[in-house]
Amino acid sequence: MAHSVSAMILAGGRATRMGGQDKGLIALAGQPMIQHVINTIAPQVDHLAINANRNQADYAALGYPVIGDNISGYQGPLAGMAAGLAWSPSERLLMLPCDGPLVPNDLVARLLAALGDGDVAVAHDGKRLQPVHVLLHRRCLPSLQRFIAEGGRKIDRWYAELDQRTADLSDQQDLFVNVNTPMERDAMEQRLNPTANNCGHDAPSLPVEEALARMLNAVTPITGRRQLALRSALGQVLAEPITAPAPVPAHDNSAMDGYALRTIDAKQKSLQLVGSAFAGHPFTGTLSAGECVRIMTGGVVPAGADAVVMQERAERDGNTVVINQWPELSENIRRAGEDLQTGDIILPAGRRITAADLGLIASTGQAEVTTWRPLRVAFFSTGDELRSLGEVLEAGQIYDSNRYTIYGMLNNLHIEIIDRGVVKDDEAALTQALDECAADADVVLTSGGVSVGEADYMVKLLRAHGEPHFWSIAMKPGRPLTFGRYREAWYFGLPGNPVSVMATFAQMVAPALRKLAGENPPYQAPRFQLPCLSDLRKKPGRQEFQRGRIITTESGQRAVESVGRQGSGILRSMSDANCFIVLPADAEDMPAGSQVEVEPFTLT
Ligand SMILES: Nc1nc2c(c(=O)[nH]1)N[C@H]1C(S)=C(S)[C@@H](COP(=O)(O)OP(=O)(O)OC[C@H]3O[C@@H](n4cnc5c(N)ncnc54)[C@H](O)[C@@H]3O)O[C@H]1N2
Ligand code: MOO
Ligand SMILES: [Mg+2]
């Protein structure tokens, strides 16, 4: 690209014909509408930003800077343009609307060619100018600011004041098709995704990495703190760092059972035993020439001593000690402050407290710590077929197992749990349950009903009362994992299949819950390569999380084997396994002996 170009996508409109819904975020073929614009524009420019005045957090979750109008109220595109020109890191700035998802791949090149050394190149569709598809030179900012300050509102009047050029895009009618009404949205959905029954699942799914990045970008940690007695803090997240109030150990002490002595006396035939220093019972005097003190491991090294000899290297007869092998200076002395020095940060804020940490904190004498309050997660299972334990199964019914796996995994994250039971596939009942959960908890988690079946309501309800961020990812199992906001809460809709629940929780939900709970950085399970002893079946398209077992072969080599059938309904594959075998999206069948990436289970 000859010139550096930035782009700003305009998403600041009021969308009155969409019932006031934020147009850029409206669901279209599996992604928010603006994402379609981003997908084709981002590769054409050096920098990209979104101009939005509402739902800025949701836009920010897409991974680009969000710039609001700095003129208050909705002033139409001119205010957005002024904000864009003020932001633009490049000399040339492309502006285009968020509601025209069919953007050509050469739009920037064509506008650049038309602009030449002019101020603004405005797209022409063959009939008229399209004033919000423009490439502007950054030097136009003062002119625009003056125009707005003088009360100017009409965009073409302002262009008329500039050195205006026209870009003939009459062969690109699609670019100017925009979505203003729910009917137009449905028509666009059909164009982008003709085979899908208005459901979006055949649409290109988000790569797992990108879905994860968006989720982590969107959520911000909770802020309430509490003071806890040390033991109750196990598994909680520190809100403040722990510092050492005094050195640990507090004194020089012995690493061996033996005798404390002065190495300067090494020429002496024998030493005089003048006392003892047991752990907890220091010797209070000072060693003089030719003297030693009986000392036990952990005993304070007496004043004057500069080494300890282990008792195996000395012989004692009454109060006379003969040293058979003299120690070096400082040998067997553990120095004060060797573990911790006063003021050392021993554990940072954001740390989830382990058993080792409890001990470390206790070693500094601190009985209480400040942690973030626990994250509250409310969850329920959806499905007319589900029965709870203790109930009798009738034809076509099954026991609800997802609430148990979810309970277990949430517990392993030390989360405060609200179990809302089983909810029927009924819009009113589901809405009521979602409302109650969102009012009580930071996060609402459900299983089932996120796919495209006629009893799958969750994505629809999220659209009605919240904001879906994504609902189709290139992951197996777990494609319909849904993430967004439901009223004031974060929402995770896990697919109903029992293995999909566990895989999406481990891979996607847990990192987000960890961040929400204040963990910083959120724990990441280790992954490493191992030879795989089984043939693996894999179709290219989705990243797969197959279930495997890390084993040691008879020859002592570490390897992984598949646990066998990988259906997303076969829960036994999870309890038989001890790791995920992580296969990249484009991988195909792999013969036994291939190297594969494995991730040991951490929450199961
Ligand atoms: N036409 C299409 N059908 C399906 C697609 C698709 O893209 N197009 N995706 C499939 C995939 S992948 C998954 S995963 C599932 C997800 O389904 P839902 O999230 O809608 O879940 P349900 O339909 O409610 O249930 C699916 C399955 O899981 C069983 N289930 C549900 N809840 C529980 C529970 N609490 N305990 C035990 N088992 C449960 C349920 O009985 C079903 O068998 O959609 C595919 N379909
Ligand atoms: O994603 Mo589904 O979980 O393949 O079965
Ligand atoms: Mg379903």
UniProtKB/TrEMBL annotation:
Annotated residues for binding of Mg(2+): 99
Keyword Metal-binding belongs to the record: yes
A molecular-function term among this protein's GO annotations: GTP binding
Catalytic activity: adenylyl-molybdopterin + molybdate = Mo-molybdopterin + AMP + H(+); Mo-molybdopterin + GTP + H(+) = Mo-molybdopterin guanine dinucleotide + diphosphate
Pfam family of the protein (one): NTP_transf_3
InterPro entries: MoaB/Mog-like_dom_sf, MoaB/Mog_dom, MobA-like_NTP_Trfase, MoCF_biosynth_CS, MoeA-like, MoeA_C_domain_IV, MoeA_C_domain_IV_sf, MoeA_linker/N
Assigned keywords, A-Z: Cytoplasm, GTP-binding, Magnesium, Metal-binding, Molybdenum, Molybdenum cofactor biosynthesis, Nucleotide-binding, Nucleotidyltransferase, Transferase
Pathway: Cofactor biosynthesis; molybdopterin biosynthesis
Family: Belongs to the MobA family.
Written domain comment of the UniProt record: The N-terminal domain determines nucleotide recognition and specific binding, while the C-terminal domain determines the specific binding to the target protein.
Subunit (UniProt): Monomer.
Name assigned to this protein: Molybdenum cofactor guanylyltransferase
Source species of the chain: Spiribacter salilacus
Gene that encodes it: mobA
